Structures
1.
Amino acid sequence: MDRFINEIKAELGNNGDFHLQRDYLADAAVMLLGFNTLIDFIKTRTVLHKHAESILLQNQPSEDLWGAIGELMEGDVLKAISSIYEGKLIIHFENTSRFIIMEPVPAMLDRSIDSPTNENVIQGALDSFTEGIDINIGIVRKLVNSDEIRIDSFSAGRSRKNKLSLLYIDGQADIELVNSIRNHIEKNIQMEAYNLQGLAKMLGFPSWNAISKFNTTELPHHAVQNLRKGKVILFVDRLPFALILPSLFWDMFAAENDRNFPLPIMLAIRLIRIIGILITLITPGLYVALVSVNPEVLQIQLALSVAQSREGVPYPALAEIIFMLLILELILEASVRLPKSIGPTITMVGGIILGQAAVEAKLVSNLLIIILAATTIANSTIVGFQNSVSIRLFKYAIVILGAIFGILGLVAGLVFLSAYLASLNTYGKSYLYLNVKGNENNGG
Amino acid sequence: MHVMLMYVISHLGLIFFMYPGNVISSTEQGHWLPVLLGVVIHFIFINIYMKGLSYFPKKDIIRIYAGIGKGTAILFIAPVFLYFSMILLITLRAYAEIITIVFLSKTPLWAIMLLLISISTYIAAKGVETIFRTGLLLSLLFLPIIIFIFFTSFQNVDWRYVVPLDADLGFIIKRTYLESFFAFSGGFLFLGFVQPYFSYDRKYILWAAAFLIPFFLFSVYIPVLTFGQATSATTFLPYVVAVDAININWLMFDRVTMFFLLSLISFIMLYLALVSWKAIRILSHYLPSIKPVKLLLALAAAVYIACFFIPDWKDVEKLFWWNTFLRFYILIAIPFSLFFFGRCMKRKGIDESI
């Protein structure tokens, strides 16, 4: 045992999966070091030996072999240790301080490319991104297939390095945007970026934004289309989706897969989504406003039937709607939490509450159930889960304003929301632009 | 595009409330003449104003006047600031009153004013780009409603009320007619403030102004055509009453007025935001040490408190009337002075180059 091995052992010996194996390559006795959880040792050794054999058969000196299998280093123990942590194999020559860092056959820790789990696609490509950053970049490369794609890689974080990659198409992407993203990443390279909040902090976005600055997608086709339009993709290792920057308002309505339909159908689908967002925002507030503040707006028959449906309901419309919306949110949250096998129970129980029981117990009105159902359904038409969550939140602001000021409050809420959306921007790109190359003439 | 939209919506917000009443009560027949006169004057002044501004590319009017001299700055900028504060005060108070009258009779006035001022202050605090983008979103949302209701308001029209067409010029000196210039002079000044942020084509602004002509004309004529001059002169907000008379069977709502008014009020909020932004631009130019946001909050608070010193509608009208003199001063002095200084500059420039 020489000094080099001892130093590494002192550092890594208390890891149960640290593997040390003696082997002979060509004419040298070597030690193979690495984690057997990250490295497929059997396959790696087979590869190594085949390599050695083929070099020896051609009567080349063994120095050539070392050069061919990896990076030859001398003495740097710390480098060896950090390479082992990164999943590399260290081949150490006994009784020297020389070693080789080799890219081994990795243990299969990534799932294979699957169909998307959070975004459904009808009539379109069914592959999706996975957790491995290299696989994701590979998928994008396969789809773009152009010499103009640029990939910048960073590794961020203090204790554990996490890989980040920035992808854009040269000539399409706005170079200022790319530079500001790159500068922010380089400046904050010490920050941890395992999740979107951390990443947002790293990129200098305010953390109190109700709308996500990232447009996340699992679908490679969607991501690549955005890339072609001049947007920028960020990949974070271990996050199974692409982060498209900047996120724009129009992204709530337009999915790339729409273009697999005829143009009129596509326009109709997008119109439905626009109506969906309006219904989500307006109907709960309108209900409260009409019932509690401005019933005279309705035609008399309608006002009477609304009043009739609320007969016997013991509390004001605001309490009624907040109560039911809360239950609805609880159901939504619960169905995310529960395992798939118990999930249907929640659907059933929720269906009973939101269906007949609450109405028959005279706790809420019939009309409210219809409005809640419409709201929830409409909310789901929005493209991108992170967008629909934001809209879900804004709905409450409008409900409360509507309860105080009636329809005036509703309108004030919409004005406020418009102003909020209008004030958002990502490095100077307004949230309301229709595309990234927008100037003041084509966007909001 | 933005500037054009903003121009249209800030005027639409002003047209439909006070303007018809003022014009209708200013003359008994031939209402087209007062409207047309107003429109023509409006056109002349915005033309001169924009011409004047075009001598100073990429500069807003604060810097133009400040560049000319201290005296001019005081002579022109101070009244403009005063005028803006007055507009804020009057608009806020008047519209809160209108809202109470038309549909929120139980809600206290202070709550409505608080809502209006806080939203417009929020928008103003976010800056001019937000104001303009909000304008775009709001016009996408509400302009269709306004145009739809504008067309349905022809429902009860009796065209025989158009006659007699002949008109005399007696209305010019009437107080109500002079007050009606509120609708013309309120919005145009912002063209001088947006220069460094947005560029615009003069032609488009004129198109926008032309687009507004039918609204000016019919906001007056629809009440007249619906009720006749004698009746509509007695109503407080003639156009609103005329829209209230609309009955659309297939729509589930009885009072379409509500939606019309509210769409207009959303534009008014934006207009208030724009005016407070302009006022703050002036203030922060002279008080650069204080943060604009603080100035804005102070201004909003001052306006809000001042509103409580106006006990009822009569005082609003009195204030409105006092403001008329200031309004004409602004309407005439600012465009002409800009034009004049612009010409001087140009001539001087030519002399020097020779």
2.
Amino acid sequence: MKLLVTFSRKKGKKPIIAQAVRDTGVLINVERAVIDSSEGEALIDVPDEQCKLVSDTMIRLGATVHILEHGISVNESECVDCGACISICPREVFSLDKDFRLQLEEEKCVLCGKCIEACPHQALTLPL
Amino acid sequence: MHKTIDQINERIRDGTARVVTAEEMPVIVAELGEEGALKEVDVVTTGTFGAMCSSGAFINFGHAEPPIRMERIWLNNVEAYGGLAAVDTYIGATQQSDTREEEYGGAHVIEDLVAGKSVELRASSRGTDCYPRRTITTDLLLENLNQAIMCNPRNAYQRYNAATNSTDRVLHTYMGVLLPNCANVSFSGAGVLNPLSNDPNLRLIGSGVPLFLCGAQGMVIGEGTQHSPAGGYGTLMVTGNLKEMSQDYLRAATMTGYGVTLYVGLGIPLPVLDVDVVRATAVRDEDIAVDLLDYGVPSRNRPALRKVTYAELRSGSVEMNGEEVRTSSLSSFRKARQVAGELKRWIERGSLQLALPTRPIDAKKLAKPMYQSIQGPRVLDIMDRQVFSVREDEEIITAAKKLLKGETNHLPVINSDSVLVGIVTTFDISKAVANPGKAHLVKDIMKKKVITTTPDEAVDIAVQKLERNNISALPVVDSAHHVIAMLTAMNLGKLFGGRWLK
């Protein structure tokens, strides 16, 4: 399960992810993180059954946590199945099937959003 | 054996014509042989669906009361051409909105009309004795227009170069997003299904030939602009009635950072008259090669890295410098198949008769580059030939003195072979003086990544480098990377008031 964790760094630099790993013993996979001097956002992947534990721990440590049930989504009425997104995606989420229809492996998506501007038909959107 | 167009049309009328798509044809020829395929197949349908920037529509609005001779015209804030008498215009697909920029453009206006949406017409005029009105604003539907005729100067490219990017930054091009360091390849075109690739000698495709255009029955007008079949890049000028078109085969699009374009679905039926037609329509993706060009080079003559076929491009990856690089198509092969399939059904139903060209298209033409009576300014025209440079192993104070002596802010740094290895600015030296530390030599404080230009480079390209890197000077180097001059922001002043402003 993927969690989007956002935290403020104004009250000092608490190592929230490291703390959560130590407290819960769950090995967290950080798939994407943007952290600057005032705030941070990390996309993490945790096993489904430990999702609640990790989420609760991080909230206790002062982070905001969103459970992400969806990756990037395709508006099928806009998509023309060109495939411009395919080579842009760093996680190989997109492919064409044998009928040259666009296929998504949503679970691979790390919501980086790189495909959004590559889509000539503005058919791709991030959840949230 | 050969068949006449009349025999084929008779079979279409009888409902007995055998129609196949250009994707099915190579398989049939492989099975039955050329003579067998000629006997079996009457019509081969082609199809393509991709970005065709050179598209647009003529529109006639009818006369207002009191009447106006429209001089400046906007449709949903997208400017349309106002030089066609009183109430005609041409809306071009790539024209961008005055208010929404690349998010909305002429292509979107055309798609909105086809989708049955209302479009706001705004126009102004000087007013004349016969056309007294000066302004008009009205909301229009496609059905309110007397004519809405799609007329595309350059469509259906026979093939198109594939694109990659060797620079270290993302490029936004009409070939889509190109990742840095050749990390992806973008291509466009229907390959095996492309109309002109199935008739490369232009025996069957010419003026007056019927075609499928965005769901309507249209017609080939003749050769397209920039038609260059001698190099394998033929194009067509085509027309069709916008009122008969469908959004399924006509879509506005925006290439982020580049602009608006129109995705056009286009297909041409080819009558199988003789063995030559069989042979031409047996073409496969493997047989159609294009150059893979480096769009990182901002020139008309982009270097070709290698040849690639549509079969390779469509496989998902191509090999470049020993690495597998992923490919993306900008055009939709699924939609191209739909076009060829729909065209096939039209003919099987008997609702489209075939015709041979009333006037042929030249199959040997080669498009020329632009004739430029005045070359734009090049770096050598404005560069400063007096160069002060410093050796990397000299002391910082030497660099400071040279900067003062040269009255410059930029000092190229060279090694013992006089090759450019870095650059120092007055800022770097001030920093070294203000924070005295371990740095004593020029090489300790110089910037090693130097953006350079060459004497032959167009000033426009050099200016892009200055802007993009937020710098104010470029060393001008020769092929051995020796600094022969400097181009600074100050030199750009020479462009004003000089002979370049004609």
